[in-house]
Every structure is written in structure tokens, then in C-alpha cells.
Design a protein that fits this description.
By secondary structure, this protein is an all-alpha fold. The protein has one domain (about 1-55): lambda repressor-like DNA-binding domains (434 Repressor (Amino-terminal Domain), Orthogonal Bundle). The chain contains 4 helices and no strands. Helix 2 crosses helix 3 (about 30-35). The longest helix has 13 residues, at about 1-15. It starts with a helix and ends in a 10-residue tail after the last helix.
């Protein structure tokens, strides 16, 4: 989970975007983004896909 939380925060900061702005882009709430970044919430596949799409990234899930 740490890698996901760190990556979301990293991408958001690189885009000079606030948590509220990201939340608006994915049709969610700022509190959801805060909980994701603070590792207090396990995101759904749909949420992860929306976040990736908001940053122009693709979502990869691997089992190794």
C-alpha cells in the first residue's frame, strides 16, 4: 500500500495539484485523496484507474 500512496502523492505534487483539485477530477472528495495518501484507505480498482487517468498514466496490476 505504501507504494501506491507514495506514488499518488508524488504524481499530484509533480502536477502542482491540490488534493481538492485531484478529487474534483476523479469526481470524489478531498478527504478520500487525503486518506489514500495517508494509507488510511485501500482504494478500489476504479479509484486507482481514475487517478491514473487523471495524470495521463496507465494502471498496471502485477502479481509477482
Amino acid at each position: 500500500m505504501l507504494m501506491i500512496a507514495h506514488r499518488i502523492a508524488e504524481l499530484r505534487e509533480q502536477a502542482n495539484m491540490t488534493q481538492s483539485q485531484l478529487a474534483m477530477q476523479i469526481h470524489s472528495k478531498q478527504q478520500v485523496i487525503s486518506r489514500l495518501e495517508d494509507e488510511q484507505h485501500i482504494p478500489s480498482f476504479t479509484t486507482l484507474w481514475k487517478v491514473a487517468h487523471a495524470f495521463g498514466k496507465r494502471l498496471e496490476i502485477k502479481m509477482v
